[in-house]
Design goal:
The protein has helices at residues 21-35, 52-55, 97-100, 118-136, 153-160, 189-195, 212-221, 235-244, 257-273; strands at 5-10, 39-45, 58-59, 67-70, 73-76, 78-84, 89-95, 142-146, 171-176, 225-228, 248-249. By secondary structure, it is α/β, with parallel strands linked by helices. The chain has one domain (5-273): Glycogen Phosphorylase B (Rossmann fold, 3-Layer(aba) Sandwich), CATH 3.40.50.2000. The strands form two sheets. The chain has a nine-stranded mixed sheet, with helices on both faces. A two-stranded antiparallel ribbon has the order 4-5. It is globular.
């Protein structure tokens, strides 16, 4: 029996950025799942504030070189990788000069204003992950997403890449955190997603406004399993999750979450394969 494969996609991972709750989970969980006998791959954006020399990032030439079309504009995709020796795991980084070379993560440090192109950056990131996994020829059984910046992954896997045999059996698990962002993403996000062939019915949750709540609902709509990543999450999302009836794992503390997530992946895979 082959090992189950889990693809971790996160908006942040410790130690590459200042430690956050999402970053810490995204660093420890892949290691724990690998130690429990599953194969893993881990991806995050290569924000410009990440110190490449300190963390020994290097470009993977064989994976780089393709262009992704976002809103009818070509953007070169660059793949970098770094190792965490103590964990025997690698982290792949999605990079692009226009989207990720600025010395900040999601908002301007001076003004605090969120970047107007965070929608395109999020689209580029999730598509970059999928295209890289395709190049690797590595078919994931579970794709586990962490943070709202990964929120469009489920939509793309279930719709845009629905005919791709590599992802035919992939199940989406979404962790919901207390990571709300202010206001809403660029109003033209629907037009940009329409370029990739998404119909209005596919985007019903963000049709009015691509704010945090709606982005997460859009992600959860196409999820196969949902995990409460933070002890507290938005009450509106709690209601939405309960109403969905999808497999759900409640919040687990540090001593419980690795075994709980490992078991939850198996539950999701069993449930959808019945």
């Amino acid at each position: 029996m082959k090992k189950a494969r889990v693809l971790f996609v996160s908006q942040e991972i410790t130690p590459y950025l200042d430690e956050t709750f999402v970053g810490k989970i995204s660093r420890k969980l892949p290691q724990g799942i690998q130690e429990r006998g599953k194969e893993i791959r881990t991806f995050m954006p290569k924000y410009g504030c990440i110190n490449e020399r300190r963390h020994q990032l290097h470009e993977v030439i064989r994976l780089s070189g393709m262009n992704l079309v976002i809103n009818d504009v070509d953007h070169p995709l660059i793949i970098k990788v770094a190792s965490i020796p103590s964990a025997r795991m690698q982290v792949y980084f999605i990079d692009n000069e226009e989207f990720f070379q600025r010395k900040a993560i999601l908002n301007d440090k001076a003004s605090g204003k969120y970047f107007d192109d965070n929608d395109e950056r999020a689209i580029f990131f999730v598509r970059g992950v999928v295209e890289t996994v395709k190049k690797l020829g590595w078919a994931p059984d579970v794709i586990h997403c962490h943070g709202w910046f990964t929120g469009l992954m489920a939509l793309y896997i279930k719709k845009y890449y629905s005919e791709d045999p590599l992802f035919a059996d992939s199940k989406l698990v979404i962790s919901v955190y207390e990571d709300e962002f202010p206001k809403a993403l660029n109003k033209k996000i629907l037009e940009k997603l329409a370029v990739d062939g998404f119909a209005k019915k596919d985007l019903k949750h963000i049709s009015e406004e691509a704010n945090y709540i709606n982005m997460m609902k859009q992600s959860l709509e196409f999820a196969d399993g949902i995990i409460q990543g933070s002890e507290k999450i938005n009450p509106e999302l709690e209601k939405f999750i309960k109403k969905s009836g999808k497999p759900f794992l409640g919040f687990k503390n540090e001593t419980e979450y690795m075994d709980a997530c490992n078991d939850f992946y198996d539950v999701v895979l069993e449930e959808v394969n019945v």
